[in-house]
Amino acid sequence: MLVLVAPGQGSQAPGFLEPWLELPGVADRLGDWSEVVGLDLIRYGTEADADEIRNTAVAQPLLVAGALLSAGELFGAESAPTPARVLGAVAGHSVGELPAAVIAGALTEREAMALVARRASAMAEAASVTETGMSAVLGGDPDEVAAALEKLGLTVANNNGGGQLVAAGTLEQLAALFADKPDKARVLPLKVAGAFHTTYMEPAVAEMERAVAGLTPKDPGVPFVSNADGAALTDGAEVLRRLVAQVSSPVRWDLCVETFQRLGATAMIELLPAGTLSSLARRNLPGVTRVAIKRPDQLEAARALIAEYADRAHETAE
User: Fold this and answer.
1) Which of 36, 53, 153, 281 has the most crowded CB, counting CB atoms within 10 A?
2) How far apart are CA 259 and CA 91, in angstroms?
3) What local confidence, expressed as pLDDT, does residue 220 receive?
């Protein structure tokens, strides 16, 4: 089974969209989406520095655009198979759930771009109330790590599996964690501007509820694996409800991975700007073929994998 995943905030890097502008139609698509989100995505994706694209209001639309661009290159041609024909499941990490919902068939591209603009501004506003952030905690004894986080009042915002947690809280709390790390654990500050997926983001939930009020999602043609609990969803309304709640709820990527395993995943494609989820899969999904898309020249490997699974689907149908 082939799984397709979209990365979350922190995956962006300066200039990551630049080589993609050489492909036909990409500049037009980015121009259209720029009007939807009210940002110059081309400039931010090619010229902006790391500090500019660290801004939540910029990073989230930029990441959704990147994932959708690469997905369009894989499935947009008339000769390409549809996602429903070749994919066994789709998922996204945090904001990556929005392009995943598009690929699954629940939302349109423009709906996702409009929604991420509201999501990003609401989360940026919520993050501005208190200086907060996030740090990855790698390794260490799980009980000792949990005790250290609880002692400092930090929240586990992400559980990425394989002994990788993401702690969220105030900058003072995170500094204290860095200064006194749990035994045998590494602590790495992340390039994000707030304590996402915690109660600090609750004001953004109300804004998201208003943002989705006029949307009528379709039922996914591909199972959508939810960050909340790893459930494989086929109901569009439930996908939309979870996209709203996810803003202030922990990302349980570990449970998504368990679902991939249960469904029989044998290959995974990570959309632009890939790397983070493929790296996690190296540890958490051993033996699964991985293709990470960062540059246009990596599309060929992804297309070859899609063609292989399209052939398998055809053989099964016969």
Assistant:
1) 281
2) 10
3) 98
pLDDT of 313 strictly over 80: no
Task: Write down all domains in the chain, each with its CATH number in brackets.
Answer: 2-128+198-317 (3.40.366.10), 130-189 (3.30.70.250)
Confidence of residue 318 (pLDDT cuts 50, 70, 90): low
User: Each residue of 53-81: pLDDT tens digit?
Assistant: 989 999 999 999 999 999 999 999 888 99
How far is 257 from 285, CA to CA, in rounded Å?
8
Mean pLDDT score of the chain = 95
In angstroms, the Cα distances linking 235 to 84, 89, 94, 219, 231 are: 15, 14, 19, 5, 11
Angle at 36 between CA 32 and CA 39, to 5 degrees: 90
Catalytically active residues are 94, 197
The pLDDT value given to residue 10 = 85
> How many angstroms separate the CA atoms of 226 and 92, rounded?
8
pTM for the whole structure: 0.94
Q: How far is CA 36 from CA 28, 31, 45, 124, in A?
A: 13, 9, 16, 18
Cis link prior to 61 (omega < 30° from 0)? Answer: no
Tokens 């789709």 belong to 90
Separation of alpha carbons 279 and 299, rounded Å: 18
pLDDT band at 266 (very low <50, low <70, confident <90, very high): very high
Give how far Cα 287 sits from Cα of 223, 261, 268, 272, 283, Å. Answer: 22, 11, 11, 22, 10
